From TrEMBL, chains A, B:
This is asparagine--tRNA ligase. Gene3D superfamilies: Bira Bifunctional Protein, Domain 2, Nucleic acid-binding proteins. Keywords: Aminoacyl-tRNA synthetase, ATP-binding, Ligase, Nucleotide-binding, Protein biosynthesis. Its EC number is 6.1.1.22. One of its GO terms (molecular function) is asparagine-tRNA ligase activity. InterPro entries: Aa-tRNA-synt_II (IPR004364), aa-tRNA-synth_II (IPR006195), aa-tRNA-synth_II/BPL/LPL (IPR045864), Asn-tRNA-ligase (IPR004522), Asp/Asn-tRNA-synth_IIb (IPR002312), NA-bd_OB-fold (IPR012340), NA-bd_OB_tRNA (IPR004365). One of its GO terms (cellular component) is mitochondrion. Belongs to the class-II aminoacyl-tRNA synthetase family. It comes from the Eukaryota. Residues 149-451 form the Aminoacyl-transfer RNA synthetases class-II family profile domain. Signal peptide: none annotated.
Amino acid sequence: TSVSRGIAAGIRHYCKNTPTKLRVSQALSGAELGSNIKVQGWVRSVRAQKANVFLHVNDGSSLQSLQVVASSELSDPLLTFGSAVEVTGILKKSPHQKQPVELDAKQINVVGECNPVDFPFKIKERHGLEYIRQFPHLRCRTNAFSSLLRIRSEATAAIHSYFKDNGFVEINTPIITSNDCEGAGELFQVEPSGPDYADGENFFSVPAYLTVSGQLHLEVVSGAFSKVYTFGPTFRAENSQSRRHLAEFYMVEAEISFTQSLEDLTKVMEDMFRFATEHVLAHCVEDVDLFHKHVTPGHRDTVDAMIKNSFPVITYREAIDILRRSSERFAFPTDWGCDLKTEHEKYLVKHCGNIPVFVTDYPYDLKPFYARDNQDHPERTAAAVDLLVPGVGELCGGSLREERLNLLSARLEEYLDLRRFGSVPHGGFGLGFERYLQCILGVDNIKDVVPFPRFSHSCLL
Amino acid sequence: TSVSRGIAAGIRHYCKNTPTKLRVSQALSGAELGSNIKVQGWVRSVRAQKANVFLHVNDGSSLQSLQVVASSELSDPLLTFGSAVEVTGILKKSPHQKQPVELDAKQINVVGECNPVDFPFKIKERHGLEYIRQFPHLRCRTNAFSSLLRIRSEATAAIHSYFKDNGFVEINTPIITSNDCEGAGELFQVEPSGPDYADGENFFSVPAYLTVSGQLHLEVVSGAFSKVYTFGPTFRAENSQSRRHLAEFYMVEAEISFTQSLEDLTKVMEDMFRFATEHVLAHCVEDVDLFHKHVTPGHRDTVDAMIKNSFPVITYREAIDILRRSSERFAFPTDWGCDLKTEHEKYLVKHCGNIPVFVTDYPYDLKPFYARDNQDHPERTAAAVDLLVPGVGELCGGSLREERLNLLSARLEEYLDLRRFGSVPHGGFGLGFERYLQCILGVDNIKDVVPFPRFSHSCLL
């Protein structure tokens, strides 16, 4: 008896010579048809007929389950939806179109029971994202959320691949930091808990915070590396219950030395977006289909339009003109100098054909101290760019950095040192990874694209 | 004039047909010999001769620099060690053995000056790791630390590859958590800073901490996925200045469902170690050589022995016997039931031939509540395993998890729920990534293998 190596890898193996696109899970890889194998997983469906019981066993390696056929004698009242089983049997060609192989069970062992009355998910029911969100410790056992987790894993890998293939070095920027990059003020402070540290002295000798951006640390390294990036958790102590904000979220940030213009940045943002999206569509076919067909029907057309068209670039000035010419009534003002709000961003995206759009050259006063001054009096703009996307609004924000020591009014001594010793023109950007997943899957609430969401008044598990 | 695409990729291109193993950086990829190109980077050496100036320009893509040859007229007093330059010139075959190509400069532009008197690193000096550690914002500009960052990036990619290739799904376990996985007590607490939150109410409604391990969250997901892993930052509020501890460090953690025995875990640990190490040795040849030849001479033999030999497995009982038979005087006791200290771990590694060794089946009372009870009275051990490695001691710790509801005395309601609904035998482990880098590079101090070290009384930048 050879032990399961994964249903997904397994079925893929048998699909090579079949017209079907099915992929399943971990038991089968390399096993010959007719051989005796052991499969392990969770029961996703049970169907009893006169002589036989049909099970679908899933091991998380794909959405697809392996069909198990057992004679009624092997039936067991513990064989319920959600229970964990080990099945030994003979691998056979399936007579059904739906799957290339099935398992003719010789022995079924229920390793973990699952009482269907207590279990919050019911067989054959399609529970909504909002319902399953109530069970953070169990929701990965639903089809939708297990698909989400596989997509998230694959999208992460795709983003790393994009950067590696393009010569970027990954830098682990710190989570705990003594500086406040954005000056935004919405910081979490970090101190040891417990009585040993109640003397009021800081553990790090200085107040320490959770990072809001790895940018300053990337800038340090981009003084010796032309291309660097980081991809990790970032924090905001925002007291909001928005569908677009979390207290802990993942950000992709890149920094590129010797940049000539904002085009050097927008090219990387657009290429990365397209590469990651095409990769996910190609490698998570069934998982993405589940979202595009059942969770957010109709969204596939939006995604196809996003990857087929190149992203338009408009200046902030042009954006303001578009907004002011529009017949739409906005809640917030649209004068030159006003920040673009979500309502404006969504309008601009629609105006441009419901595809991602770059907005460049924002008023200098709207952007942080490190954005490069365009010195274009009287308006005075900064060489900054945001990428706005359908359904989400702002996905990326970037800028050329002010590399000129005399123009930089920051007070950080180290930041000034970086300009003192071999300073170069550079720029970078950040992308909100959860918003990216919302964008490609059409998921409305950011809490549904992260394994364990953290927001004000909620930190479950 | 085509613009640089990276000296490393470039020189690799020209090395294809040369016997040399040299790899350089970002300017050259695809450019024909004799064509006009632009190269951007930092000056790593300047040497003036009568008619010519020789520069080495590095862009961080590899240790190797591109040699630039310029007529003395192009010389400039600002062309100093550490300055940033843009060089335009003709790519030529180099007459020297050391490099396949060189750049015949037509124009040199100093983009960023670097005053060699103020700059803390001096040309041609080999600064020690301890010296450069004083300059966290500049040390990436040294050869040693830029090599370290490339190795770290490559090792990270190798570990992700290992897991992806073996069917593991990556799960982003949360940084902020309301539980204390290890019960160790050395926790950082997280609360918003600033006056808005001074009312004593918790932001998350419950006390929230920085994670000490993603294990419990991986266990949640391993109720639907046979193989999952996480790779990210982890935290300990340890008030120590040890060479092996940081307040913020990276951990690789994996969880495998349907495990039969500790062998299922040790196989993954050993395979991953070997895969990552062989990958780094093959892909970072010059960077690793710099460490093995100049920073930690002699360490290469240790590394070669580690990947050539399979890792021995001894029980805790055997380990205690070895320690008690030894003639060495230990500071800590070696009775059955005592925890293994660093001195013991290092002795055991030496005893086994200075290669990594697994120690299994520790006393039940030494291991956390989730370790599986071996029920082997009267000794009572737990199915737990540590991997001890040369120079570092404990690198990995893992265990089978107690999947039996009636034996599990934890108080976490969710943790019990996981056993209630389709519980399966499972197990997992964690590996300290910085210790792994120490181990393969022979670096004594953990602060030298992380871009921005955090420890008690220190949180620079």
